[in-house]
Design a protein that fits this description.
N-(1-d-carboxylethyl)-l-norvaline Dehydrogenase, domain 2; globular; 303 residues; 12 helices; Rossmann fold
């Protein structure tokens, strides 16, 4: 239990957000939730907390608002409403309250958002997340944060209630998003490399279970190989993180590097692989479905 219960709102009860909300509820905070799927929010709140009918209602009730949506465009809608019609939470949040942004976004956009919210009297935490749904649910995920000291002062306990590791990377927005994008560079390249390795093994007739066993106990292993190739072995492409997430995130990686004319040959190749998988019809499947771009292999099927 947290030493001080806060009025916290969480927007976006997806794979990560639902786990984060559960962690906040478990810590004893006064939790308000909103999701575009009203039934999901109501089901969550049936175990504790309040499902809000609108984002504006949530903003008015909370001292800290945590946004766990997919991208910058959705974050804009959360804050300012559809087509900036004012129906978001920025108009209803009290001066001095804190907005915690957990999406993977362009760092320059995050810097600009901090300035926009400052004009409204709202404090801002640039706080991308990593670790997957299981770690979010257990409160063991990682947060890469950057914020002014006064923002940390009001919400640091809540951050620690959601994450085992809360890294403070600077006093101004953007630093957290930069580190997250670099993390996504590695994650995307590792998934693409894992898929390529498994595909070659299948092409060469190596039993996939044996290949998985050996690699996960050898120097070539990575967390992404161990995690994502288990999905391939199970023939289960239910999206925990979808192919199109890495189309977006590796696109952000390349955009950041392009601005400073920095070459990223592996990231470029991985991005093309995810683009190919998306175009082939696997956009909303688990990101391990990038393996489906390789011809002439027989993938395991779901039993």
């Amino acid at each position: 239990m947290s030493t001080t219960a806060l009025n916290i709102g969480l927007i976006g009860l997806g794979a990560m957000g639902s786990g984060m909300a559960a962690s906040l509820r478990r810590a004893g905070h006064n939790l308000h939730v909103f999701d575009v799927r009203a039934d999901v929010a109501k089901e969550f709140a049936s175990q504790g907390g309040k499902a809000c009918a609108s984002i504006a209602e949530l903003g008015a009730a909370c001292d800290v608002v945590v946004s766990v949506v997919v991208n910058a465009a959705q974050t804009e809608e959360v804050l300012f409403g559809k087509n900036a019609d004012g129906s978001g939470c920025a108009a209803s949040m009290k001066p001095g309250s804190v907005f915690v942004m957990c999406s993977t976004v362009d760092p320059n956009w995050s810097v600009a958002l901090e300035a926009r919210l400052e004009k409204l009297g709202i404090l801002y935490v640039d706080a991308p997340i990593s670790g997957g749904a299981a770690k979010a649910a257990s409160g063991e995920m990682t947060m890469m944060t950057a914020a002014k000291p006064e923002a940390y002062a009001k919400c640091e306990q809540a951050l620690h209630d959601m994450a085992a590791k809360v890294y403070k990377l600077g006093d101004n927005a953007g630093a957290g998003s930069k580190v997250k994008i670099i993390n996504q560079l590695l994650a995307g390249v590792h998934i693409a490399a894992a898929a390529e390795a498994m595909a070659l093994g299948l092409r060469e007739g190596v039993p996939p279970e044996a290949l998985y066993e050996v690699i996960t106990h050898s120097a070539g292993n990575s967390w992404m190989f161990e995690n994502r190739m288990a999905h391939v072995l199970a023939g289960d492409y239910t999206p925990l993180s979808a192919v199109d997430i890495f189309v977006k995130d590796l696109g952000l990686v390349l955009d950041m590097a392009r601005a400073s004319k920095f070459p990223l040959p592996l990231s470029s190749t991985a991005h093309q692989m995810f683009m190919q998988a998306s175009t082939a019809g696997f956009a909303r499947e688990d990101d391990s479905a990038v393996i489906k771009i390789f011809p002439g292999i027989e993938l395991p099927t779901k039993s």
